[in-house]
Amino acid sequence: MPSFGDFTGPSRIYRDRDVLSPHFIPDTLHFREHQIRELMSILAPALQGRKARNLMIYGKTGTGKTCSVKHVARKFEEERQNARITYINCRMYNKPYRILSKAIKALTNGLDKQGYGLPFYYEKMLEWCGEGRQLILVLDEIDMAKNIDELIYTLTRANDELERGGVSLVGISNRLTFKEGLDPRSKSSLYEREMVFPPYTAPQLQKILQQRVELAFNKDAITPGAINLASAYTAQESGDARYALKLIARAAEYAEEKGLGRITDAEVKGAREIVETDLVKEAVDKLPEHHQLVLYAVARLTLSGSKYARFEEGKDGYLFSGEVYEDYSELCSKLRKSAKTARSYRSYLTDLEMLGLVTTVESGKGIRGHTKLIKLGHTPQETISMMRHKFGE
Question: Is the CB of residue 248 less than 8 Å from the CB of residue 263?
Fold first, then answer.
């Protein structure tokens, strides 16, 4: 009979498993030196008692946005005097009240008051900043925050009321179209500076993985070819460094399950399919509701077949944008939700394409006019199964 001792002994592969976590922040972030310098220059005024400029950071998943900001925040905290950086994930704290209460609890060593509303925490923020302090709020996944215009207005109003001190905002989003849904006043106040983090290339990913495996694994626990293969696969998946880390970690699990002491190409190949499925599910789970509804509509139509005849050789499997919007609207009506405008729908498609969940092409002339054609990035059965529990079909 097996015992837990069979599974808790020293690993033949791992030295430190935590190094492959996406939450691990190495001392050196390769290929993000330029972005780190720019971040430091934007936030540096707060260390001199002046308000830092508001900033929006964009980039696909796994391009080092959060890691770079946390790296800079760590350096900032080492030198701070009357300034603080507070990191908040808007997936967990998604309302103005929850965001401000989380920030104030961090600033006041765990102040925990139940039953107080937004005005209470707003006044606490004014008190803290009013002593000449600078507060920088980092809102990761800011697109998941509800009533974001209210929050931006609240923070802007705080700076108008403060004679000393100030509040600055750093937003992080995977969605380049995030700002299109904001109130014009929010846009003008929030978008003082913008940064875009580009995807990593295959050679860059190779060096990033080499850095991590040297820290995570025992010597010679992975072949150079396995690192190269993982880098190549990841470059094909839009340069997502988190994908690369998950791929290597899953390959290590395969090697351990087989009783091997070394990761080779075979383990990386075996890990690829399951990692892709995991990351697709994670991406779908993180989507705002109407993005999910559009994706669900694409999957339903892909499974049932286009309402229109096959229209052009080589375009089989593509759907007309108009019919997807019709199905999305019908789905919203069935679920008693208000369908968004065609303009919002187009921005959702852009976001879904950026995440690799759909692909789009322009139809060209002669096919029901000039329209966008949409194709699902993964199997419709797999996509529907990820959301069926939510939409009750």
Answer: yes
